[in-house]
User: Fold these one by one.
Assistant:
Number 1:
Amino acid sequence: MEWIFAFLVALIFIWYLTFTASRLDRLHHRVETSWASLDALLQRRAAIALDISHIPSLDPATAVVLTRSAYLAREAEMAERSEAEESLTNAIALLGESEDFHTEYPEISEKLEVVTEKIRIGIGIHREAVATTKHQRSRPIVRIFRLAGTAPLPVVHPFEKVPL
């Protein structure tokens, strides 16, 4: 009778380890998908900035700064990504100082505002996903039994000023 009880406890423990490993895998997947979604939104913002830079009535200096910042943001490696996105945010802020832009081009201005709001939400979702995954990975049972496998520790991409 004791061996049945021990077998059931072992079975429940193995199930718990499997469940925890599966949950951790889903959390890692959530981090990856949240980053992919955020990256797509940032790429869309850069594309909109390039469209804005081609508007004929735009100040030439602003157009050059916007074009350069948009290309840097689109092509930046991960290490330089935060700085490039911050540069693009600052270039877009130059447009915010001009009320003429918003009144002359309301549809592109609206697209930029919608993408900016989605980016704010995407950054929040990504940070929350990373925090949850890190919390689960810090649990002793996960570390002792190496339930995270070979998955790298997720990182929050430092977008302090993206977008304001």
Note: The domain at 2-144 is CATH 1.20.1440 (de novo design (two linked rop proteins)).
Number 2:
Amino acid sequence: MSWLLIDNSNTRTKFALGSAEHLLTWRGVLATRDLSSDTLKQLLEGVSFKAVVIGSVVPAKAVILQEFFQDQVPVHFLDFNSPIGMGIDYPEPSQIGADRLANAAGVLSRHGVPAIIIDFGTAVTFDVISSAPAYCGGVIAPGLGAMSDYLARKTALLPKIELEEPPSAIGKSTIHAMLVGAVIGYRGLVKEILLQLGKELDGSPQIIATGGDAALIAQGVPEIHAVDPDITLDGLRQVAARVFGM
């Protein structure tokens, strides 16, 4: 039995197939702005699955996904009521994003707890998992791309930049200087947040990075133990196994 797993985030929507044991090789991706019944039909032509688990943080696109699949196969939308394999120690669990719950489900078996998952997307989120295990909360900050794009939109002379490792900490051009501020400055943000979280979390947490900018930022943050691009999708897979059976 295979399930279709959908991580519907603000910028990209990622698709994978999973079984009870692991993620399968087939993958797909759509720009979230382009997600429609037509693009879904084209992407999934010839792909076979028995049920769908969706983690969505884009309500308008969640409606499209629901309408597309509801007459085909069973569909489960991940939320705080879903079986993520741990408790939730959070005052308003309905406010926790589906992507953050999927990350929590994924980290438990892939890396262990306690843990902090840093998801570098449109926003960067830090999700804290206690040794109980329980989802405890975390941090939300502007994503690296959002911060760098803001300068290009709001200033007359600063260009839009492609993010990459700066050659040195002293900028020798406008773009070089912007890269230092974006990449090295962002690493400082990550390190300080991790420092403060560590003061409030018992034990030595596994610190796992995922998302589009994870590999770039993790190069200069030794506190990060691993970069795991599949943690969100694998969390959805584990929820699928609990909802639809092994």
Note: The helical segments are 37-44, 59-69, 98-110, 144-154, 174-200, 214-218, 231-244.
Number 3:
Amino acid sequence: MKFSQDLTAGGYAIHGYSDGEIIVALPASEANSENRGRKHLTHSFVITRETLVEDWPPEKLDELEADHFEQVAALEPEVVIFGTGASLRFPRPEISAVFAERGVGLEIMDSRAACRTYNILAAEGRRVAAALLIP
């Protein structure tokens, strides 16, 4: 699925999603003829308008630990969108507590919905981070 809204002028955005891959639109400062303004990611990652963390360790929900969410919280978002892969699943409560302790909102959804939601909130100027598992 390709997203049509172009948000790259102000930072990172999600350009498209398919099984096993999410395409990130790069900010204008990183776009060139070689990458054509896009990065194809096949491993879990974290994205904000200002930051792309390509090496976020968990590949599956059952690998997720509180330390992984601590990495996301360090980006100081006001809300985190957690994409759990192809289907909606919930992490253990003690892992999600990382955000509750900081007063950060956490929304959990499948990764397709998380990509769309991230783009909408980022376009509104919200301090949003998306932590996305790629099945």
Note: Confidence is low (pLDDT under 50) at residues 1-8.
Number 4:
Amino acid sequence: MTGILDPKAAGARRFEGQVAVVTGGGQGIGAATARRLAQEGASIVIGDMVAESSERVRAAIHEFGGSCEIALGDLSQWENAEALMAKAHDVYGRIDALANVAGGTIWFQSFQYYTPEQIQAEMDRSFWTAMWCCRAVLPYMIEQGAGAIVNIATHAVTGRFRVPYAAAKAAQIGLTTSLAREVAHLGIRVNCVAPSGTAADDRITPRDHGVDVIPPELPPSERADQEEYRSATRNSEIPMGRRGEADEQAAAIAFLASHDASYITGQVLAAGGGQPYPF
């Protein structure tokens, strides 16, 4: 048994005896969240598409002495989201927390260059995963009279060159605020973390499928504009002037999922500073 999964946990055991489902738990913020919740005592179920990265996280949790299961599948499809929650409940008998971390931008370009297929892919990846998982987990949380859901938005909802991704994440904000009001009286809290740019060096599956996210066929002036924007805004929009760490985002997610946030629902926490949405 190893002594630590997340150095920022500081010995807290807020999830002792609880069960947490983490989508996208094989890498990046999702993997950090799975480790953090396990460090604090939760049994983990990872919902992901990639076996290799998910197994890596499960092995770390098992080495720590925790419990972790994996359900593989594309969570932008309802049947896979339903199967994920069913497996978690079948194995552990309850679901106390759901962290909807699966998603992430794929392309970076002016909206007029997006194809219909690219737009659909961005929406599937960064919105429908959360929508279906929220819907799939509700019957279990309603039955037990308690639960916490944490969705993931982004500071990029007010940015440029990622319109479909921004729209998908803004929709998660709407999902959060509306659902929170609907289920509060049932003992279920729904909140959202909106990360700023976050470094994640453990990705097995790159967001951009291994190609330059600024299409090389763009006109030189358009390409230069996008490269300048990316360079100028990567840190300037973040008050602390640096990219976040995945463990830092996981700490924010863990707080909102925990009993420390028992009187907080329908909120969007901008993890990294700045206002993530203009309303």
Note: The radius of gyration is 18 Å.
